[in-house]
Predict the structure.
Amino acid sequence: MAQLLTEAEIQEQAKVLADWTVEDSKLLITRTFKDFIEAIEFVNKLVEPAESAGHHPDIEISYNKVKIILTTHDAGGLTQPDFDVAQAISQIN
């Protein structure tokens, strides 16, 4: 199991993640697209980095908005894999 990050480590790593926020031991981002099709195309692009990392986001889709939530459920909070996957997701257009 991945080790929980300290609050200081979380804040330091969050500084380099544009548009992500930290709430209740979770990393969150909402991306808005032209329409539902573009939103789903984006979600499909999340599969490879999540599978490669063995760390999967929670995803909420509402028409043209995609909310991504990262946390390490079995650790009970944020770990390094959350930030690694967030960084990969941030690179997806």
